[in-house]
Please model this.
Amino acid sequence: MTVTAAHGGVRVVSVDHAASAAGIAPGLTLAESHALCPGLTTAEADPAADRKALNTLADWCGRYTPWTAVDESGGWAGSLGGGAGLWLNISGCAHLFGGEAALLEDLIERLRRFGLAATAAVADTPGSAWAVARFSAETAEIVPPGQQKTALAPLPIAGLRVPPPVIEGLGQVGLRRIGDLLEMPREPLTARFGALLLSRLDQALGRKDEPLSPRLPVPAMAARLAFAEPIARAEDIAGATRHLLVDLCARLTAARQGGRRLELALYRSDGSVARIAIGTSRPARDPDHLMRLFRDKLDGVDAGFGIEIAVLAATVVAPVAPIQMALGADRAARSESLSRLIDRLGNRLKPANVTRLVECASHQPERSQRSVTALADPPASAPSPATADERSRQSRPLSLLPVPEPIEVIAPVPDGPPVLFRRGRRPYRVAMAEGPERIGPEWWLENDGHDPERQSRIRDYYRIEDSDGRRFWVYREGLYRPGVPPRWYLHGLFA
Model:
């Protein structure tokens, strides 16, 4: 058994069958336990490891239902109930295993093979399932619909998940079973024992909702495949993945949806789970394309002692707009081809390593675009301060320097285009110049829109070509002022 230091001394946290048979139960002090059984063997409890094991077990229970959660009651409720627990919402899933009874039998038998003793119950409400699973004499029990009152009546008050002082107080007045409370006046019970007692009773009986949250978000759509015998060969796993993709994509098509993120869960026979996730730059439902994304990652799957169940879930979906193929078919095909390339690169190299540029509402060249992950959702709209026609007339360099580089310029007119400039020690003679294109500072982003120095930050850009055919993008900062030398900068390279 395991123990931990608690208020009032060292107390028992969990027991095995032998200790339980000797009358030892969670919550007793170590001294009381030794009095009942002098030859006890104890170990220090490790709550963090227990929590991790429960999360792993909840993950494995995803083979039965996508809705799983760890029982958070813990503490005194867990001690009274005899151990930790899991919630499984099997609504709409039991038929995959031949019914609720067959599901419970399969669950308990598999846990037994893992060396875990478990009891389970199915009921209309979480409260009644919790009580029956922990306090019924049966290892597995199904409460018929609407029969919670009959199932709960013979069970102890501890099945309502109320604190020990409430249980002790009720026992002192002769109320030890849940059935004892069913016909009692509600007002005196609430006044003496608090509102939680009747709230728990109403939740267990279905008179009051008891909201529970799943451990992981429930996927929008999923496809499941169970194998008669565990599979381990790479080609078998790939074939199963292909089968699941065809099934899932058919459902997505019927719902006019596409998958943005898909996750393949492979449940091994040893109780572990292997997960593979892929993402797409835009909603996709083509099995061939999605299979190529999975194929890059399936090679590294460890099948262990064999895979018993495979579940493919679309965890993120989005509507797919119809494509008019008769008009602009070439453009649509190019866009689709680019999206597929981005998907393959992003899933092979990791999404953070594949980026793209999106437009921002700014005239400033260094702020007119920003880098985003290639698999991120494209912006709903790309606001721009210039119209498409204006942008088409104002060409931009292929390469923009991270920071404008100061240069020395000779211009025949102080506010005219340069005829010669020096970058470092190398001179460049200008053969052609086009401009200026004036770009002012964004006063709405500055603290003081009436700053008198604002004119000194106005830029006049020129597109120039030297005598060797190299093209540059340079600008003069500030308006011409007599006696003040102009400041010139190189900001980009065209080719």
About this structure: The first helix runs from residue 17 to 21. The chain has a mean pLDDT of 86.
